[in-house]
Amino acid sequence: MSPVWLVTGAAGMLGQDLLAALAHEDVTAVAADRTALDIADPARVRETFAAHRPAVVVNCAAWTAVDDAESQEDAALRVNGTGPAVLAEACREHGTVLLHVSTDYVFAGDGVRPYGEDAPTGPRSAYGRTKLAGERAVLETLPDTGYVVRTAWLYGAGGGNFVRTMIRLEGVKETLDVVDDQRGQPTWTADLAGRLVRLGRAALDGTAPAGVYHGTSGGETTWFGFSREIFRLLGADPARVRPTTSGASVRPAPRPAFSVLAHDRFAAAGIEPIRDWRTALGEAFPALFAAERP
User: Fold this and answer.
1) Is 127 a catalytic residue?
2) Cα 274 to Cα 277: distance, rounded to the nearest angstrom
3) Where does the secretion signal sit in this chain (predicted)?
4) Burial (CB count within 10 angstroms: exposed 0-12, middle 13-18, buried 19+), residue 234
5) In terms of residue numbers, what domain contains 77?
6) Is residue 249 scored above 90 in pLDDT?
7) Which of 9, 47, 3 minimizes the C-alpha distance to 28?
8) What's the pLDDT tens digit per position in 69-80?
9) Would you say residue 142 lies in a domain?
């Protein structure tokens, strides 16, 4: 019998690409969106585990409304902190591997070199605090079978994201002002999904130690540089994108100025880190364009 992989947050952008990746594996994938499974409800989680007996759980469920979390931190904490804690406890009881997707927002975002997996955390937003609470719950409850995979700047065809927004705006705006003082790694959800599958397999085989991993693309850029590459792929003039600063558009939640992550633990586990962001964006672009301009 093939092992069961339970995917929470399955209707989201990453969840969709993860299910697509699992379709090519010798596994039984069980999709659980938020209507099917409230991960913060212990009774519902126990019922789901009893019904499916998963060998691996990949937690893609999250409160991702970064600005709303500033005024609704308790609600965000229920999803981002309590939910992973409940899943981790169920995984402990059943001997299940848990892959928990987290974020660069757990860092202060004021670094000058890529954050290593063991770099000190220091979130500056409610969203970051709630995600760090989830990380800690997973790592403390599952020291041998808990995996935290931090990612950032995600885009994909299966949901709203920066790339799709830029594709839409290029068709209606003559010029766009985009911040040039926030640096990170644009990451295609399909690439991250592939690494999650490989990490889950390695966890079951005992070849990847539990702990923190960083799942972002290689290279780095700013939102301004990212936007200009999107315009180039559209065949539009990149000069139509103009640089601006974060101070020109203040939001409730502070954005990290520096979100570049190092990938040493994937390499140490024998899993190749994700490719350069430009290469991935070029491959992903036709589907993103089709999703935004059908």
Assistant:
1) yes
2) 8
3) none
4) middle
5) 4-159+185-219+260-275
6) no
7) 3
8) 999 999 999 999
9) yes
Instruction: Provide DSSP, 3-15.
Output: PEEEEESTTSHHH
**Within a domain: residue 230?**
no
Query: What share of residues in the chain are helix, strand, coil (percent, to 5)?
Result: 45, 20, 35
Task: Name residue 126's amino acid.
Answer: A
Tell me, yes or no, whether 58 lies in a domain: yes
Distance set, CA 190 to CA 8, 177, 247, 275, 286 (Å): 16, 28, 33, 12, 14
Please state at what angle helix 223-234 crosses helix 277-292, rounded to 10 degrees: 60
Question: Any idea what the CATH number is for the domain that residue 154 is in?
Answer: 3.40.50.720
Total structural domains in the chain? 1
pTM, whole model, 2 decimals? Answer: 0.97
Paired sense of beta strands 97-103 and 56-59, if any: parallel
Backbone angles phi, psi at 74, to 5 degrees: -65, -40
Q: Which of 105, 115, 127, 147 is catalytic?
A: 127
Structure tokens at 169: 């705006």
CA-based nearest residue to 51, from 100, 1, 2, 4: 4
